[in-house]
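Note to self: keep these together.
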Amino acid sequence: MFEKLAQIISNYVEVDPGDVKPESRFMEDLKFTSFDFMSMLGELEDEFDIEIDQQEAANIRTVQEAADYLETLSK
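Structure:
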């Protein structure tokens, strides 16, 4: 899950998937804008055929938190 997420992240910001770390923060470290983040959530919903709760998503700060959340939805 983490590797796929890192690949998707690299579609939105100028970062190599190999440079995405579990502790990387979307806004501070990866330089996501709010629009980037919301667009990525939409792609994740399509990619994994899931529905992301917007309130839950608002609490996600790091890539690992996102990966963990996606794991709970795809079960």
